[in-house]
Amino acid sequence: MFDVKDLxxxxxxxxxxxxxxxxxLDPADKTLEGFNPLCGDRLTLYLNMDGEERxxxxxxxxxxxxxxxxxxxxxxxxxxxxSVPEAEAIFNTFHTLLTDSSAALDLERVGKLAVLAxxxxxxxxxxxxxxxxHTLKALLEGGGEPVSTE
Length: 150
Description:
By secondary structure, the protein is of the alpha+beta class.
């Protein structure tokens, strides 16, 4: 039988080795840096917007642990083409999934992001998985200051 932990490991490894949307967008409508001082993850998130309502392109670059890179890769796949309210709703769902141990795993709602649910069992790794998401949220809200997980 295929174990969820095997799927978790397979997806994390794949997105870490072959991150989707990795690279600088030049030009980018919006850019913001994120930093996790606990383990040294550092990324820059780039967005191009279709007006102010829809994310038309998204990219990231930087370095970090496997969970950080995989999470950023999965995030970019999930928010590309989404409206700002849709992207914010995905952020809220994902954040709850990782920070609320009583949150039900609604596979239809979270899709591939479900593989990161196992991170909530390792509190120090939650910051690795959510760094890119907090950077996205700040960027969508117009933030200009670098984001830190501390």
